[in-house]
Amino acid sequence: MAEDTDEFQEDQVSVAERMAAEALIVDVDGFEGPLDVLLMLSRTQKVDLRKISVLQLAQQYLAFVEQAKQLRIELAADYLVMAAWLAFLKSRLLLPPDPTEEGPSGEELAAHLAFQLERLQAMRDVAAKLMARDRLQRDFFARGVPEDVMRTRKVNYTANLLDLMQGYARIRTRDEFRPFVMDRDAVFTMEQALDRMRGLIGFAGSWTDLSSYVPEGWDADPGRRRSATASTFAAALELAKEGKVELRQTETFAPIQLRKKD
Amino acid sequence: MSEQIEEEEESLFEAPPIADQERMVEAILFASAEPVSVKELNDRMPHGSDAAEALVHLRKRYEGRGVRVVKVGDAWAIRTAPDLGFLMQKEVVETRKLSRAAIETLAIIAYHQPVTRAEIEEIRGVSVSRGTVDQLLEMEWIRFGRRKMTPGRPVTFVVTQNFLDHFGLESARDLPGLKELRSAGLLESRPPPGLGPQLTDPEEEDEATEGQSELFED
Amino acid sequence: MSEQIEEEEESLFEAPPIADQERMVEAILFASAEPVSVKELNDRMPHGSDAAEALVHLRKRYEGRGVRVVKVGDAWAIRTAPDLGFLMQKEVVETRKLSRAAIETLAIIAYHQPVTRAEIEEIRGVSVSRGTVDQLLEMEWIRFGRRKMTPGRPVTFVVTQNFLDHFGLESARDLPGLKELRSAGLLESRPPPGLGPQLTDPEEEDEATEGQSELFED
């Protein structure tokens, strides 16, 4: 008697399953991928997703794909990939584990699938909860006549003592005023150095001391020497950057040498 | 005259009484449809004002009234009490009906933020269409978060202040069921077995918490 | 929510307590884009409500608050309290350098005070626009000094305490002379002989000290 009822119930379930599967196939376009189908199928097991029988689920899914094929429904590739993966998983779950084989066990893979299904179901549940919340301009409302915030511009004029003194100096020396410029007598510019070196590097086939490029007449006065050395050095760097020369220095503060690069 | 000026300048730094500050916050919040940040309140109020304190008083004052002072991220707004929604049929703004894909994507972003497109796809088991993300971006319910420190430095998505405002949430921490999901381990990004601990490296964890706090920063 | 509506429909002729009606009016006025008439309020509120009476209470409640319940024509609205209108403005402060003309005029006044407009023009060699002087007056960096005892009794300009404060000077006498400007590298060449610093012009000296002492009187 008890057995009968059980059988009867089993029958019932399988009918329900079959109907569900048919509905799934007809509805295949409405599904959001294989995971969605799996989640749908898992509902027929009516158990906690954590305790779901992945094996049974895999069988249901494979049956679903099989039926779809019979009905000549074109299934997207990811449904078939999932079917292949589930077939692999099924074999892993059914066969005794091969100790020589590496990689995750069937149980691990099954547990992960169960986790994925549980997580997807959880996301669906909270999404529904979220959408059921009181919502702005539907259940609660913002101000109907917001007021614009006027932006006003206020200019603060300012000046410092230097501006003031420069201004005064400008007036008092108007007649002989010229913009403040550095005395350039003692300055050898980088442009000058670069011009000069471009002309000279053609002859620098072997390593030559950089200081030998400082122009004549610029080495006596310390100020002039500093300026010429600095600009020559900067020009050498520029030429190295352009790939025209190579530079080397044996140690810190040692003379810098350069030669033409071919 | 100069003395007077000095006096005025001094009083510039003396804040108005808190009762007046409360009135000012009240006026500013009433005038704005959008939430107003504490910083902006302070910027608009006289020098030395403490909008945060005034807000505590104001919020209390409106408890149980027809409108309420609500916190939205780090900003504040006045909203009608939800139980009076039935009076406001005239003001209802029909929001575009979201597709199931969009709703799920939104929920995944809200609960898993900052989350990459690949992670959303992992969870849903299906690719996320460009249109779904675009729609959510356009509604200003999600925005780009910082890039993830994983190979390819993928962009992430996080929810916005508008999202919080729309669903009446003070912060993303108040999402319904968040605690339960977390304790059930359903918010962990668990890599498929055999793929190694790629997704759960500690750097990522930092990023994740940072991302959440990011919401409350701006 | 639907339950609530049902309940209300049952109690068709029993109006909600006046406190609730007040809340309803508050919410409706807050959320409406336009002022709402008493008739419309009554239409929207549960049967038997008396919006006019609720309005009396609500209006009283908002007395002295940051927003007020006001009558607009024969309808009602919530509006910002008039004394708080300034909060609806956001001031963007921009700092700009004074124009060259203003700086020069200011410098002349500082070095030569008390000085008339004609004298400023003579020193600058160009006419001084009204706007420049007004700007400096408005900034409270210069003010009118006493009239000069010359024909026409022209007004003079002197610098203010504000000016000294801004430039960190104890008195206008602390302004560096031409010689110091030159040694500081602010002047390139020597002034032509005879055009020496006019500050020490004996004729002007009396006036100058007088004018300067005036500065510290008030």
From TrEMBL, chain A:
It comes from the Bacteria. This is Segregation and condensation protein A. It comes from Marimonas arenosa.
TrEMBL record, chains B, C:
Gene3D superfamilies: Winged helix-like DNA-binding domain superfamily/Winged helix DNA-binding domain (1.10.10.10). Residues 183-218 are annotated as: Disordered. Signal peptide: none annotated. SUPFAM superfamilies: Winged helix' DNA-binding domain. One of its GO terms (biological process) is cell division. Pfam families: SMC_ScpB. Keywords: Cell cycle, Cell division, Chromosome partition, Cytoplasm. InterPro entries: ScpB_csome_segregation, WH-like_DNA-bd_sf, WH_DNA-bd_sf. Residues 201-218 have a biased composition (Acidic residues). PANTHER family: SEGREGATION AND CONDENSATION PROTEIN B (PTHR34298). This is SMC-Scp complex subunit ScpB.
